[in-house]
């Protein structure tokens, strides 16, 4: 896929990461020219090799820290960006509890630097990677964008809520920025080529990589944290979305911002499937789709886990003209295919 001279350039911070790399594929397929900035603190350079195979060419990538003002200014000066998708952030909940200042400094300073550079270099559009963590344990389900945000359960979650406020206040100050904050639910799966996918460092914190690593024999067993919740089978409920559906939502968000004639604009949109799935149903579906029996056990509840949360995606459907296209089974098959390519080494 060869870029054309007039393809709009999009800065993708954290573009070598799980969601970022898949979004790079969707951007190219939609006629955009992504430019990655990543310091590879939570990603691997092998993602660039995978992108090369999928796209048939290299994607421009700067190895830089998004908090490095000199490096970022040089990149903005060199590249004429039409928009920014900001993924780059520390994201480990447990680590954020242990090192809150590191999380606040990294996640907030990088965003504020972008919000300073964008008007300076006449870059109008920002899509921000937010999270359903801002809802906490909601009183009513499914959650809409009007559902009250609750106090975050971790400094990581709090950085997402504060970042949304920083963007909102910057737009309200009449800064010439059009922004959408996408509140993700639970991205899973991998590109169907198995060339890129989720690469957790160390023991996975998310359910599906733990499932695939258990199936591959890397982990001896999977622990289901609690089966006495007020849910259909007693296990926690989440909204699991295929990462390629999520990637395509970013493309639609950019298009929406490009259509908006206002100099300043800000809104938030849920990005999920609109369906809640229990942990046990994820395990059962994985076994059905792959034919692999999982070794799992029921453990005690894990402190801080939300009982259930899933999205109302009406706004995404109508405002972005976007909906999910991939099934849960497809997501789990793609995740397993990616794990099989990685092999059984940790």
Automatic annotation (TrEMBL):
GO terms for biological process: galactose metabolic process. Pathway: Carbohydrate metabolism; galactose metabolism. GO terms for cellular component: cytosol. CDD domains: UDP_G4E_1_SDR_e. Pfam families: GDP_Man_Dehyd (PF16363). Residues 11-333 form the NAD(P)-binding domain. Its EC number is 5.1.3.2. Its cofactor is NAD(+). Belongs to the NAD(P)-dependent epimerase/dehydratase family. PANTHER family: UDP-GLUCOSE 4-EPIMERASE. Homodimer. This is UDP-glucose 4-epimerase. The lineage of its organism: Bacteria, Pseudomonadati, Bacteroidota, Cytophagia, Cytophagales. The gene is galE.
């Amino acid at each position: 896929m060869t870029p054309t001279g007039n393809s709009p350039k999009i800065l993708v911070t954290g573009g070598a990461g799980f969601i970022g790399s898949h979004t790079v594929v969707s951007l190219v397929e939609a006629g955009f020219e992504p430019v990655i900035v990543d310091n590879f603190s939570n990603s691997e350079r092998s993602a660039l090799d995978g992108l090369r195979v999928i796209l048939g060419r290299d994607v421009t990538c700067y190895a830089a820290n998004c908090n490095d003002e000199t490096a970022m200014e040089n990149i903005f000066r060199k590249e004429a960006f039409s928009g920014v998708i900001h993924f780059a952030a520390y994201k480990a909940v447990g680590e954020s509890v242990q090192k809150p200042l590191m999380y606040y400094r990294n996640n907030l300073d990088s965003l504020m630097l972008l919000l300073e550079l964008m008007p300076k270099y006449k870059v109008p559009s920002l899509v921000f990677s937010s999270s359903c963590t801002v809802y906490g344990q909601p009183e009513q389900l499914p959650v809409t964008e009007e559902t009250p945000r609750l106090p975050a359960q971790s400094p990581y979650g709090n950085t997402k809520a504060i970042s949304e406020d920083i963007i909102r206040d910057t737009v309200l100050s009449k800064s010439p920025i059009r922004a959408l904050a996408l509140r993700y639910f639970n991205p899973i799966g991998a590109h169907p080529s198995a060339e890129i996918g989720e690469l957790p460092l160390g023991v996975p914190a998310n359910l599906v990589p733990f499932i695939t690593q258990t199936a591959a024999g890397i982990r001896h067993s999977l622990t289901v944290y609690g089966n006495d919740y007020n849910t259909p089978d007693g296990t926690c409920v989440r909204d699991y979305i295929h990462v390629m559906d999520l990637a395509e939502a970013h493309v639609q968000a950019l298009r929406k911002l490009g259509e908006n004639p206002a100099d300043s604009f800000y809104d938030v949109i849920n990005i999920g499937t609109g369906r809640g799935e229990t942990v046990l149903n994820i395990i059962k579906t994985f076994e059905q789709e792959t034919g692999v029996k999982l070794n799992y056990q029921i453990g005690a509840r894990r402190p801080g886990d939300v009982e259930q949360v899933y999205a109302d995606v009406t706004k995404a459907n109508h405002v972005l003209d976007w909906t999910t296209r991939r099934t849960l089974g497809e997501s789990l098959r793609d995740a397993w295919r990616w794990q099989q390519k990685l092999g059984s080494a940790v």
